[in-house]
């Protein structure tokens, strides 16, 4: 494993997450890049699931022209929203700004962002007509992080966690507030 990728993995393993996030390692895709690590997170507040997401960090030491670098972050975030929000034509643009703003606020240097934001409203009929209407936002995005140290990785992890929380309706942590690491309870990530 290349030393810089090992540094990135160790930064992920040692990350202190916001208390609303439950984070765990998941299997990473094997054919996109020579090296990959993946995590998933649920956003919960007062025992209510507000949203979820995944982050994959890809690394190709030889670089990739399509990535414009040798690392690539790929994410998916989703959350239920108020049904009225889905009708707002600016929701998808605001959703995209959550990603870019989170990267900027956390001083996570990047290039080549791309992705989609989808707002969906659904209503059930027939045998499931009693199910309540649903509305959700989904963001699928990728960007090329500038990584030369574990601090760089942590900046991108903080931006990603902020994105998940914003998508789920939670505000970013105020400047200077750092999440307190929870007690380890057999899980390698929290």
Question: Summed up, what is this model?
Answer:
The protein has helices spanning 3-13, 83-86, 91-105, 150-167; strands spanning 21-26, 35-45, 48-64, 69-80, 110-122, 134-145. 25% of the residues lie in helices and 37% in strands. It is elongated and about 55 Å long.
Topology record:
Elements: H1 3-13, E1 21-26, E2 35-45, E3 48-64, E4 69-80, H2 83-86, H3 91-105, E5 110-122, E6 134-145, H4 150-167
Antiparallel strand pairs: 1-2, 2-3, 3-4, 4-6, 5-6
Helix pairs in contact: 1-4, 3-4
Describe the fold and architecture.
With 190 residues, the chain is an alpha+beta fold. Helices cover 25% and strands 37% of the residues. It is built from 4 helices and 6 strands, in the order H-E-E-E-E-H-H-E-E-H. It has helices spanning 3-13, 83-86, 91-105, 150-167, and strands at 21-26, 35-45, 48-64, 69-80, 110-122, 134-145. It has a 6-stranded antiparallel beta sheet with strand order 1-2-3-4-6-5. Strand 3 and strand 4 (69-80) form a beta hairpin. Helix 1 crosses helix 4 (150-167) and helix 3 (91-105) runs antiparallel to helix 4 (150-167). The longest helix has 18 residues, at 150-167. The chain is elongated, with a radius of gyration of 17 Å. It starts with a helix and ends in a 23-residue tail after the last helix.
